Amino acid sequence: TRILLLNGPNLNMLGVREPSVYGSQTLTELVSDLQDYAAARQLELSHLQSNAEHELVGRIQQSLGQIDFIIINPGAFTHTSIAIRDALLAVAIPFIEVHISNVHAREDFRKQSYLSDIARGVICGLGPQGYRFALDAAVSYVSSNP
Ligand code: DQA
């Protein structure tokens, strides 16, 4: 099973960025833990973090026929990006939207997502563990929808 993990803008600042909201783990640590978790389950996990919308759109487009499932934390693009929504609709690859923080317990503008209604599911507010829950859900989704 080929899984693509996408992290949007400012997630490269994990560990430094508002630790009371996002925790102290860096993105490098988080991704390397997930790689171990994925490897133990015979999953192929690729990762891209980008601060640029066009790079995320490009990577989603390239996933057509190459990737079985996407896990995406779009960062602030969650609340703004019709382009990422359209790319996910274009490739029609099932995906889970992950947020480290509980976006519903923060500013009103974070309650709106351009992705949630087309996602298989949304995980938010559970910290970095949310990514692992998303991996588990991806595995069970892919095994029941071969
Ligand atoms: C976030 C929540 C977004 O509102 C914010 O812009 C982020 C991170 C999260 O993981 O909690 O950059 O996606």
Automatic annotation (TrEMBL):
PROSITE patterns: DEHYDROQUINASE_II. It catalyses: 3-dehydroquinate = 3-dehydroshikimate + H2O. Gene3D superfamilies: Dehydroquinase, class II. GO terms for molecular function: 3-dehydroquinate dehydratase activity. The keyword Phosphoprotein does not apply. Substrate binds at residues 73, 79, 86, 100-101, 110. Pfam families: DHquinase_II. Its EC number is 4.2.1.10. The keyword Amino-acid biosynthesis applies. It is an enzyme of class 4 (lyase). The record marks 17 as: Transition state stabilizer. Keywords: Amino-acid biosynthesis, Aromatic amino acid biosynthesis, Lyase. The active site is at residues 22, 99. Pathway: Metabolic intermediate biosynthesis; chorismate biosynthesis; chorismate from D-erythrose 4-phosphate and phosphoenolpyruvate: step 3/7. Catalyzes a trans-dehydration via an enolate intermediate. PANTHER family: CATABOLIC 3-DEHYDROQUINASE (PTHR21272). Belongs to the type-II 3-dehydroquinase family. Homododecamer. This is 3-dehydroquinate dehydratase. The gene is aroQ.
